[in-house]
Amino acid sequence: MTVPYRRFTERAGDFAWCEDVIRRNSKSFYRAFSLLPKCKRESVFALYAFCRAADDCVDVEASEASLDALERDLERFLSGLTRDEPMWRAMDVVFESFDLDEQPFFDMIEGQRRDLSFRQPQTIGDLEEYGYYVAGSVGLMLLPILHSRSAVSDGLKQSAIDLGVAMQITNILRDVGEDLDSGRVYLPADAMREAGYSQAELDKRVLNQSFVCAWELLAERSEELYLPMQRDVALLDEDSRMATISSLFLYRGIMDQVRESGYRCLTARSVVSPKRARQLVAEAEALLRKAAQPALVEGR
User: What's residue 297's pLDDT?
Assistant: First the structure.
């Protein structure tokens, strides 16, 4: 698609509003996708603002009515009626600029509905299904921006979904204690049983080897799900590869921070320090350069 750069300039204030939303709410996501060129960067920020609006219907308002209202606004927006608000005005430019699929936006709202009627997942498969709706859907939203010059293959779509689910599982592993405060246990029941960790121990925030085993069972799956996009990142537009691989490294680095803290995620939240973030971005850049070398050799 031909990007109408003028429209981004005309809506600069709306995109600045969206950027403020992501800057306040997701340091890792903001740090990584700030590496994109202007129009792609601002488009990602606008889509993040939509996802944050959906999330806030649950985590801030705990209101199904608010979620229903957001879904109606989305339906009207997709029919050509744009609310006169910063997020929707910015989204209008993004949909004009890139060939976005509508379904992932509805899937995101469905994921938030599942949180309103939350039940602990019984299996890792249950958790991954939930992870698709609240995060894999985001991968599909962003993919037409990151891979804008040709049709997207089913394999690359799956890699984008896997990356989103991996990030969601990472967030869950970081936020075990915070989620418990909200009455939610995302650790699958079968993983807890396999590790020999009980709900009573979790309620008391007992940090023992059984908890570590349950945590690592989930971490292992998260790490597996990062690998497809690490492999396929070279299929993205050249100007989108660094941002994507950086987001992967920064999120995966959160799990290492939890480990370094002694798995204190039951009582504290681990944060990747600015120094460590710079190191992770440098590691991502090195991997990207290495991945490009065979192509350079073949081109000689």
Answer: 34
